[in-house]
Amino acid sequence: MKLSILDQSPIASNQTSQDALMSSMRLAHAGEQFGYSRYWIAEHHDLPGLACSAPEVMLSFIGAHTKKIRIGAGAVLLPHYKPYKVAEIYNMLATLFPNRIDVGIGRSPGGSAEATNALSDNFLQQVFKMPELVQELLHFFHQDFPSDNEFSKVTASPLPEVLPIPWMLGTSMKSAILAAKYGLAYAFGQFMSDQDGTAIVQAYRENFQPRIPGQAAQVIVTVPVICAGSSDKAEEIALSNLVWQLLIAKGEGKNVPSIDTAKNYAMSDKESEQFNAMKKRMIIGNPKEVSLALLDMAKHYEADEMMILTITHSPEDRIESYRLIAEELLK
């Protein structure tokens, strides 16, 4: 089974934003050494505890510090941007790092309403135009606009020898059908969903229309995971992430708290329910437990690849989690 990494570049309570971004670079480098297939970094705007607002900048940095792992955005929040500029950026990356670039495409705002308004005009109207934006982006990548289109003579230069590979990221039937319509690979964000997404993934496969002859549907499922040498240690490490999410939910979240801070956090009855619900959506355990759970989920979704999101207070614990999983499943 292929395994990959989704990184939200979390900032721990004892870190600066620079520390967090450097930790992301080290994670990508370690992931390459462990045998992970790809590393994607997310785009967020003015969200507490998350450092990366410009994946394209980080991908340049990470590409220069790695050699073969595929790298990409998870995701470019397309309604904020003109497709032409996105095509230029990722063609540039694909020219610098040949046959290594993925372009995850998403439609969420990635931040608060205020940050969204500061970043772009008419965001909601652009969300409604998402099919047109996706189609335009693909035309710029493939340079195949109809001759009567105003952009038919516009080149998203530089043109790489191997094009970036576009992926549609989502958690809904709408995103799955859109991916299928345009022949895109599909990444289902289980970590952002309260529902079993098997019907969504199945609809994607059933409706898939190849853009290129011989092209097959391709599915990644992204899941939150904490792995450690023992189940108890994994549970302890996971506390930081879970309590941080509780704090964010009530507007008090800043950076990822330490394990000791998380242990001492007094939860209300309502927060205890939220805590347990969030924990059920995660895979937490020792290497054997985690590997079996990932294999089971991959079989359940008929996924081609599993992508792992791991947030810990300690960067070392995060890298160790990925290492232990790789030793079990990527031998």
From TrEMBL:
InterPro entries: Bact_Lucif_Oxidored, CmoO-like, Luciferase-like_dom, Luciferase-like_sf. Pfam families: Bac_luciferase. One of its GO terms (molecular function) is oxidoreductase activity, acting on paired donors, with incorporation or reduction of molecular oxygen. GO terms for cellular component: cytosol. Residues 1-296 form the Luciferase-like domain. It comes from the Bacteria. To bacterial alkanal monooxygenase alpha and beta chains. This is Luciferase. It comes from Ureibacillus manganicus DSM 26584.
